[in-house]
Amino acid sequence: MVSDLNRRMLMALTAALPVAARAQGVAPGAASARLSLNENPFGPSPSAIRAIAQEGARLSRYADAGDAARLQDAIAKREGVTSDRILLGDLLDRLGIYLSAKGGPGGRFVYSAPGYTALIDAAAPFGGIGVPVPLDRDLRNNLPALTAALSLGTRALFLVNPHNPSGTLGAGGKWNDFLVAASRRTLVIVDEAYLDYDDMERTAVKLTREGHNVAVFRTFDKIHGLAALPIGYVVAPAALAAELRQAGVGNVHTLSRMAVAAATAALSDPLWTATVRKRTLEGRDRLTEMLDKLDLPYSQSRANFVFFKSPNAPALREGLARAGIIVARSFPPLDDWIRITVGTSEEVTRTIAALKALVGR
After folding, report:
1. Which residues of the chain register pLDDT less than 50?
2. What is the rounded CA–CA span in Å between residue 29 and residue 226?
């Protein structure tokens, strides 16, 4: 049953759609702006594009062990660890499978909910049990509740920082103290896919270097713009890295030759990364300024997306789609919140115009 308030809002949104389209200069059937998957709309480094083109003549060849080793060495230098602590690949699912199988099928995997659950989902078919812990009132990782959820059967604590979908960041002494304390009870895995958009000095890798039971995952899919050639890496404690390598995790034959070449080039172009960060944060600021004007509450995102609350999120999500703005799915139980990726300057302008037309009415 649709309430009178929701019915009135849906009617207003529907009536506003032509206004939103006109405000953006979007003709019917115009290309949609896909702002749903937190992709980098500015693309990869020109150096990475050249590297991909050069590898086009070698598509019949598997990834080269020497090339992979050079990428591994470059990452190790960047992270301040020895190369044997680095495992290459899109590894969260493999980590989930390995940890669920280790010591017999099963185990508990504690994580913040709603959240990104690739590792949890991979563990489930092998008996892994996800233990969701709701975010706190500020949509941050709820450290006391996460601590309380740890038990003897916990195989890992999996955290995303900055968090997805809220974008909130755990940092400073309290965050680090929490990670150290938790790592004394179980393996802590921190996914820092979006930390490049904030401050890499806040990385949990420093705890891994100090010998704590903390593993950190990073990806080239986001700020480096290589989502079509997925590749990332894990900085792992020495013992875990050896175990994973023995189990075949990070084997060169699981890697894409083009992804290795592109990631190597991307890593050597920090100027492009800084440019993408600057343009993204400018767009994020523009979006939050509009949310302020529309009196829509939003989380303190430090990532390449905004997350805001709407009186009728389903209707607004549909209205945005009709205006050519594709936003993320809902994240139960936060069904009245909407996540929008920061797009190009033009896409941000379209998004702002659509929000103003739809919500402003």
Report:
1. 1-29
2. 28
